[in-house]
Sequence to fold (82 residues):
Amino acid sequence: MAELGKTARHYKKNPRSRAKHVKDNSPGGKYAHTNEYKRAHSKARASLKIRSSSVDASKQPDGSYKAESRKANRARGGAQRR
Fold:
């Protein structure tokens, strides 16, 4: 009988982590928010009358959106920021 791998042992010992793993790997789990996110941003772009690909609908801390340069918006956040 084969022994469990390191990852399998981890999920066996950590029920919360295992539940998240199962949810993330179920159909639609990890990316379930994507369609809602796309709809919200598409609606914001339409209301701001953005047609150019060089302009983003930038989400503000208060939840509103504003038209902003794509370069400025994307330079500020995400994976590049450390």
Notes: The chain has a mean pLDDT of 86. Helices lie at 6-13, 15-25, 34-47, 70-75. Residues 40-82 form one domain. The CA atoms of residues 22 and 29 lie 8 Å apart.
